[in-house]
């Protein structure tokens, strides 16, 4: 075919195939028979073969699965992909509602299904799907674009030419899952435990042709930059996604009271079995995006949403033994060793019993028949004992007086249920502390998991966290299951961890009560470990969100000679002790116009990204907040600014457009 004619026909075919595809997969309402679709697709593929330069990334032919990859590339998420806090009963939902209303007053909720699949992020540039990624650790995921292109209701080109990041849940419908497992069994292959694993397994295939055969689907539920689209609520955001050509889930409802939410949750619970896809709960979101912003996030999840999780499947098995383990803080935890049993898709043989009180309370005895379930469908737990099935061979259990690892006396600290080993040299505590130090949210040393740490510790190569930085190539390569490549990778990630910003070290040290968020707050505030070390309790209490217990724990920690020595050693070994993340400049250190001002950004900025604007203003000593109030000094309104702009006008607050902001930033 002549080039110009081919080009015109390709454009026509794109439009037709996209239309039929959308009707079939997203609207569930096809207007032509499948054979017509197949014929057009064949024609498109053959023209593209003849004219390879006409094969664009948004061509519908790309859905059949392209080249096999060697590995997935890492993708940095523009805004983190967080998880949701859980509610397990009505009380938890009412508590959530109380917290929300206390913070932001009256609210409306949008209630949605929690689809049980795999969270993915879809990046569009000028309307074209350019990259899709898994959630990964929330900050960094894997590039699975080619696999995602095979999902028919992900538009390769959306209906408007926007540059946005859409989030959703990719899943495998129940029926496809059954068919897939039947086929696998027939071929003598291991079946997937549940549709979620099947979806995850399919999307993590390096050969996109496999994903293309797996019949995956998606429901999208948000746009990362919704407020920049001039959209003001989550519910409107979902309609907007529909308009752009995405598939959203239509089992959703707006509620204005928590009682209404509870009623809907009950209704949806009864619908669960009849849905053609799996759900593992219901998500309740504050509808107003302004209020969402005001509520903000904890380190892990938004304060404006919660996931109601369905009660878990329960099964009966036998308690074979109770094992004791000593944690990082010396707490001795009993674990039930169970006769292996299948629950919610996987085999369970251990369940934490938490502490002695719980064992007594539930009257759990060795060799009892016990009911178990997976809390939040993940963590196995003993629900209760079948007392009526006792045979007489059961034995009562009591906790020992001595630490099972180091033999020193166990103590019960007043007001706590846990028994604790308080010997600071207890090997189990040191080992667990090391595991925490290298973990993902602390120093994030890849390749140094529990297994390697246990070996290093057993062979006396590492006695404290500083020793990690003294490890040599020879020492590592001699460990079990360590090859040349993994040794070099490990040495590299140990080296890299030296550059971490201070908050990772602070969290990794395992100071009592100092979680990830507090570590970050402290690092930002004090900036160097030296300043934090010498801070008094009063100074610590002045820091937002640092309470009495935390302040005491920090002071006590830095009073210990051996801790100061350890930190000196780490510093000598080259470990960074300074906060290197984005800075909040103190107002008094800046003579800029922005110094000390409380500023709200709203609407879409076109010249600069919102994150850059925020960073630049903060670097000049300004403070960015989420909602407009009497305390706001200035509102920067981009395109399609909505209710925040109206509020600013109502309160007579100064408003700038983006051009003015840029001029002032340059001054
Ligand atoms: S909203 C900030 N809405 O549940 C987190 N998540 O723990 C916002 N999920 O794997 C998530 N259906 O992909 C949201 N309607 C829904 C959802 C949903 C399923 C998944 C999500 C993530 C997990 C959150």
UniProtKB/TrEMBL annotation:
It is an enzyme of class 6 (ligase). Zn(2+) binds at residues 403, 406, 421, 426. This is DNA ligase. DNA ligase that catalyzes the formation of phosphodiester linkages between 5'-phosphoryl and 3'-hydroxyl groups in double-stranded DNA using NAD as a coenzyme and as the energy source for the reaction. It is essential for DNA replication and repair of damaged DNA. Residues 589-667 form the BRCT domain. It comes from Bacillus glycinifermentans. PANTHER family: CHROMOSOME TRANSMISSION FIDELITY FACTOR 18, DNA LIGASE. The gene is ligA. One of its GO terms (biological process) is DNA replication. Its cofactor is Mg(2+); Mn(2+). Belongs to the NAD-dependent DNA ligase family. LigA subfamily. The active site is at residue 114.
């Amino acid at each position: 075919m002549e080039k110009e004619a081919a080009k015109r026909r390709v454009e026509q075919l794109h439009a037709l195939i996209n239309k039929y595809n959308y009707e079939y997969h997203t609207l569930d309402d096809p207007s032509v028979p499948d054979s017509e679709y197949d014929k057009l697709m064949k024609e498109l593929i053959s023209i593209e073969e003849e004219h390879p330069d006409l094969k664009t990334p948004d061509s519908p032919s790309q859905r059949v699965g392209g080249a096999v990859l060697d590995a997935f590339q890492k993708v940095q998420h523009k805004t983190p992909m967080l998880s949701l806090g859980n509610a397990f009963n009505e009380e938890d939902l009412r508590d959530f509602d109380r917290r929300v209303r206390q913070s932001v007053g009256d609210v409306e909720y949008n209630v949605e299904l929690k689809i049980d699949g795999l969270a993915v992020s879809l990046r569009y540039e000028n309307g074209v799907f350019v990259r899709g990624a898994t959630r990964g650790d929330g900050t960094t995921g894997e590039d699975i674009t080619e696999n995602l292109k095979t999902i028919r209701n992900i538009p390769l080109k959306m209906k408007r030419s926007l540059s946005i990041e859409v989030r959703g849940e990719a899943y495998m419908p129940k029926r496809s899952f059954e068919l897939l497992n039947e086929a696998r069994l027939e071929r003598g292959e291991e079946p997937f435990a549940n549709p979620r694993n099947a979806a995850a397994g399919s999307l993590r295939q390096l050969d996109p042709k496999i994903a293309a055969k797996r019949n995956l689907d998606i429901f999208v539920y948000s746009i990362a930059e919704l407020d920049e689209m001039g959209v003001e609520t989550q519910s409107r955001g979902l309609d907007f996604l529909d308009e752009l050509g995405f598939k959203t889930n239509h089992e959703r409802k707006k509620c204005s009271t928590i009682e209404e939410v509870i009623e809907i949750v009950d209704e949806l619970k009864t619908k669960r079995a009849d849905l053609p896809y799996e759900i593992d709960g219901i998500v309740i979101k504050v509808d107003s995006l302004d209020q969402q912003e005001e509520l903000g996030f904890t380190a892990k999840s938004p304060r404006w949403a919660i996931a109601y999780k369905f009660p878990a499947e329960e099964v009966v098995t036998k308690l074979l033994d109770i094992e004791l383990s000593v944690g990082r803080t010396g707490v001795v935890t009993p674990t039930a060793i169970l006769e292996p049993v299948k629950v919610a898709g996987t085999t369970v043989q251990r369940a934490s019993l938490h502490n002695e009180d719980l064992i007594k309370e539930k009257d759990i005895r060795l060799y009892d028949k016990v009911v178990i379930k997976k809390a939040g469908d993940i963590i196995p737990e003993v629900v209760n004992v079948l007392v009526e099935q006792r045979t007489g061979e059961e034995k009562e259990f009591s906790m020992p007086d001595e630490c099972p690892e180091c033999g020193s006396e166990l103590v019960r600290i007043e007001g706590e249920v846990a028994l604790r080993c308080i010997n600071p040299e207890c090997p189990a505590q040191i080992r667990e502390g090391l595991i925490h130090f290298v973990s993902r949210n602390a120093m994030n040393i890849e390749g140094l998991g529990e297994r390697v740490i246990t070996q290093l510790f057993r062979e006396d190569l590492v006695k404290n966290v500083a020793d990690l930085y003294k490890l040599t190539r020879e020492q590592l390569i001699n460990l079990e299951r360590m090859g040349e490549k993994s040794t070099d990778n490990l040495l590299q990630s140990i080296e890299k961890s030296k550059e971490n910003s201070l908050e990772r070290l602070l969290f990794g040290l395992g100071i009592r009560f100092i979680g990830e968020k507090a570590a970050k707050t402290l690092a930002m505030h004090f900036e160097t470990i030296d300043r934090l070390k010498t801070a008094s309790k009063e100074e610590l209490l002045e820091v937002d969100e640092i309470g009495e217990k935390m302040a005491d724990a920090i002071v006590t920690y830095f009073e210990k000679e051996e801790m100061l020595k350890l930190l000196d050693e780490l510093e000598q070994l080259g470990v960074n002790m300074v906060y290197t993340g984005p800075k909040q400049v103190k107002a008094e250190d800046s003579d800029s116009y922005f110094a000390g001002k409380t500023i709200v950004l709203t609407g879409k900025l076109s010249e600069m990204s919102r994150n850059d604007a925020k960073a630049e203003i903060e670097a000049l000593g300004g403070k960015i907040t989420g909602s407009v109030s009497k305390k706001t000094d200035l509102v920067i309104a981009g395109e399609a600014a909505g209710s925040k702009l109206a509020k600013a006008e109502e309160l007579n607050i100064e408003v700038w457009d983006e051009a003015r902001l840029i001029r002032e930033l340059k001054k």
